[in-house]
Design brief:
The structure is a single chain. This protein is an alpha+beta fold. It is 23% helix and 38% strand. The chain has two helices and seven strands, in the order βαββββαββ. The chain has helices spanning 25-38, 87-99; strands spanning 13-20, 43-50, 56-62, 65-72, 77-84, 104-106, 112-114. Strands 1, 2, 3, 4, 5, 6 and 7 form a seven-stranded antiparallel beta sheet that branches. β2 and β3 (56-62) form a beta hairpin. The chain is globular. The chain starts with 12 loop residues before the first strand and ends with a strand.
Amino acid sequence: MPTAVNKILAAKIHNLRFWVSECDPIVLQTRFQEYLKKVDFVILNFTDHHFPVQGYTAFWLLAESHLAIHTFPDKGWSYVELSSCNQKKSTDFKELVTDSKLTVNWNGDGIEICVPE
């Protein structure tokens, strides 16, 4: 039986923010959940909401932080933000997005590292 191990993490978050030219909720949910699983993020919970006029928001609570998607169908774009305390998983996730057939507009040069000080 596995035992719990205390692990102290540095206060450091790896943020990956970008826009994709896909607004179909089913496509987005399926694709990004697949990416999370491929790089071994631990999905603790998932919730989503379809707004009455237009728009969709999806949120994955991860053991390593979260992934959120917000669609703007009138503009033809969706905003995606991954925040994670695991640099390797963030980097692997970015590679999957880069290698996908999605049209991606990155916000910045890549993964932004955020620290409290």
